[in-house]
Design goal:
Elements lengths: L2 H9 L2 H21 L3 H26 L3 H31 L13
Helix pairs in contact: 2-3, 3-4
């Protein structure tokens, strides 16, 4: 990361990043708990993952160490694979039930 971006990130107090990341994570958790549409639930899980990534990058820039940013790169790569598998499962579920509602998934039980 170049010095201008690092200085901009370090110019903002770390507490702001912590509060923003906490708010994003809580919104994601509430979305997972209260929504019934599986697409919205997947988006909320990704929101929670991005909140953690934001926090890792903020701490990494604050401490001047690039290891957190490299770790975020690998998390994003795994998240892309996770989304591909999740969407494939969603397509199969939709083809079987014609719905993306989680309550309908009880039909798939024995």
């Amino acid at each position: 990361m170049n010095n201008a971006v690092s200085a901009a990130i370090q110019g903002v107090p770390l507490n702001y990043y912590i509060w923003l990341s906490t708010a994003l994570f809580v919104i994601g958790v509430l979305g997972v708990l209260y929504r019934r549409n599986i697409i919205i639930i997947f988006m909320c899980i990704e929101l929670m993952l991005n909140a953690v990534n934001l926090l890792l990058v903020a701490f990494s820039a604050h401490h001047g160490d690039g290891a957190g940013q490299v770790f975020v790169f690998f998390i994003m790569a795994v998240a892309a694979a996770e989304v591909a598998v999740g969407l494939a499962i969603l397509i199969v579920i939709y083809n079987n039930t014609r719905s993306t509602d989680i309550k309908v998934l009880n039909k798939l039980k024995w």
